[in-house]
Amino acid sequence: MPAITFKAPADYTQAEYLKLLSGWENELPKSQDKKDIAVVGAGISGLLCGWLLQRAGHRVRIYEANNIPGGRVKTMRDGFTSGLYAEAGAMRIPAKHKLTLGLTKQFGLSTWNFRNSCDQTFLHFSNKKTPRTRIKTEKLGPLGMFGLAKNDPAYEQVADQIFLLCLNNFIKRKCDLPDSFNVDEINENSSSPDDLKKYHQIRAALDVLSLREFLKDEAYLTREKKIETKLSATAQDFVVLIENLESLLSTSMTAVLDDLLALGSSEYKQIAGGMDLLPRKLAEEVSGFTEYNQRVVAVDTNDKLRSDRVYVELENRATGNKSTRKFDLIVYAIPFTGLRHIRTNGFTDFAKNRAIRQLHYDNACKVVLEFSEPFWDEEKITGGSTITDFPIRRIVYPIKEQHGKNGRCVLLASYTWGADSLRWSALKPHDRIRHALSDVAQVHGTTYEELAPKCVGGMSHTWDQDEFASGAFALFEPYQLGDLFTDVWRPSGLSHYCGEHTSLKHGWIEGAVESALRCASEICSRVASDPSLTEKHEASKGPQFA
Length: 546
Known about the structure:
- The protein has 546 residues and is α/β, with parallel strands linked by helices.
- It is built from 20 helices and 25 strands.
- The strands form eight sheets. It has a five-stranded parallel β-sheet with strand order 11-3-2-15-24, with helices on one face. The chain has a four-stranded mixed β-sheet with strand order 9-8-19-20. A four-stranded mixed β-sheet has the order 14-13-12-16, with no helix packed on it.
- The longest helix has 21 residues, at 509-529.
């Protein structure tokens, strides 16, 4: 049978993904050969990939080391009263993420709006509050937040637009785009070849820079690199603080752009009752072939593609019993941080192993407090977030629908990433609650003693201490898009890979859904073309730019 070329994530359009999701049985490559397939992990990508493969007629077993489905879509419930809950992981869905919203609708789940911004929130730096409305409309110099000199080129720039102005100028300069270009016109979900070519060209150009390098060497207020329009060190400090980018200074600018595109959505949704309702609905569809508390400890594969297949060694975390199962193919739907702890005997793919070792993961920590009443109502805050230079860094406020019937409510008192989050990880859980409450009190102009009686409890979750995740999400460092990404997603021997880290949307449910559709589709194409699973197939490298 002829070899095939596996499509790269960048080779798909959103329209193609939507067609696969809505008409899977009609779109999948047909084959009379059915295979035994192991799926490791019952997060969104593993559940969906397993469900799609089962619907294609394959014999699927999903193994999850935890006792619940969902992976990093995790809703904290047990530590709160009155049916309240908080999200340890994914908490919002941009309106442009149509696959995730499509699944939500398919399973009959209701959604609420997620207010990503609120004009009544503020920035709190150096013990000074500045309303967001001023940041959006006033020039940086007159704001007086950082003592900017009047001859500073950023003095007369609208504060909220400085970073985007510098980014636009870099992209126009590097990619030879017209002066009218604006990041807002990038449409990563377009089906237009020209739009997608521009999008991938821009991502490739940004791949070689960290955020710190961009600010130091490439941040100019004009298209041309003129010394008199270079962003000053003081203005750079302002940018990373106002945009909450300080913990991402070593991150690839490609990852920064990806977040800007997702967070630039004008509308967001959240699943009413908790984000974990989505994986729970998916889990119901695959309940007949999913095993929980089953930790995969070793996998024997045969890279030479002989008749020997995949042997999976399991350990039941509840009983300690060990067993070995045989399969034709295996899908790893877990983060590479977790895959590193599985012994993969006979696996000799050097480039894949390098990608598994080197792909960068970032941490995130959330500290959530339950209050007897929403004290922030006094400031007319509903939704949105406040940014501060205190250790809590970001406070995220609930909307009215999230309040309990007795007036109680939960507040995401601290949401941190990267190095900021590691400082919280080092604390004991009860100390996280105490320190977060103290910071929230100061930010809101009160004292710990005055606010503490209104706080009736709290919970926290830090992903670097999660036994099976060991990190919150994949986040490219410079050059990892060009040097690693093909080896991150591509199949190797009898092993296939899905999860947000194998997609173009790191850290989002949408990326997990896209990866599941790609992975299930590539397996069905492979079986249809090569029923004996003995051919060596190529992997597309996606769009290439010098």
